[in-house]
Amino acid sequence: MIPVWLNGELVDPDDARVPVFDHGLTVGDGAFETLRTQDGVPFAVTRHIARLRRSLAGLGLDVERPDQEIANGLQQVADTIDGPAKLRLTATAGPGPLGSGRDPGAGTVYIAGAPLDGWPATGSCVTVPWRRNEHSALTGLKTTSYAENVVALAAAKERDASEAILANTGGALCEGTGSNVFVVHDGHIRTPSLESGCLAGITRALVLECLDMEVEEASLSMDDLARADEVFLTSSTRDVHPQHAVDDRRLDAPGPHSATVVEAFAALAADDLDP
To answer: Which residue from 78, 84, 33 is spatially nearest to 235, judged by alpha carbons?
Structure first.
């Protein structure tokens, strides 16, 4: 059984205890990161911990665990898993009242892990009717309030797709439930800007910042998705994932531009474990 790192200690999952009054459980008052390992090492750990801090700051929270202690905890859990692994780092406000108010405290931090099943070479996604609120107090934060994503992803799976794509309240293309969206039109790679309300994904940032290719951040419509020559998704477990279908429209996948990004990202990850 894979142990859990809880508030600084590696413990058996059966012995890991979080109070039933923890605000992360009662009202979803917390933030999290999901990352994968590369050659047994948590990948892009510095970026993930920095984003966790930004999400917590946006919630008005802090955790009394130094970054290096959290990084060490991630490695400790990774060391107990053979082969590729998925790690989930969660930080909450800790025990609190049964309502939206908070009690002061050190909060709860825990890390869980599991073997990472590989994604197929290509996938499919569908659009769903619900909208991302780009004006929300939680916009841009990776919080534990994820029920909207659960509902949207379940709807996608009912249609035999692996991801649901959402527009924002203005009708612009935003993001998937756990991924960022890239489209290719006439050889140009584009992705929704952060003003759309999408999460600043770690893999998205690496594609934009570290790969030697032109990618435009822009305001995109749902029609841009529907008419794209190529579509690929990015996330910390998918890496770069070409899509062979969007709704009922089939695409050749991986297309030439998607394949180039897949290859470039794989080379980046192999060369630098903490880019």
So the answer is: 33
Distance CA 143, CA 194 (A): 17
Alpha helices for 118-213 (secondary structure H): 147-158, 202-210
SS3 state at 175? strand
Q: What tens digit of pLDDT does each residue of 27-36 get?
A: 999 999 999 9
- Per residue in 222-265, pLDDT (tens digit) is 999 999 999 999 999 999 999 999 999 999 999 999 999 999 99
Q: Which of 36, 22, 31, 77 is nearest to 50 (CA)?
A: 31
Element (H, E) at 270: helix 256-271
Identify the CA nearest to 191 among candidates 204, 202, 203, 178: 204
- Nearest in space to 164 (alpha carbons), one of 204, 197, 132: 132
pLDDT tens profile 131-144: 999 999 999 999 99
- Do 220 and 226 touch, CB atoms closer than 8 A? no
pTM higher than 0.90, yes or no? Answer: yes
- How much is the pLDDT for 15? 93
- With CA atoms as reference, report the closest residue to 267 among 217, 184, 207, 215: 207
Residue 185 pairs in a beta bridge with 188
Paired residues of 165 in beta bridges: 127, 176
Collapsing DSSP to helix, strand or coil, 247 comes out as: coil
- In eight-state DSSP terms, residue 118 is P
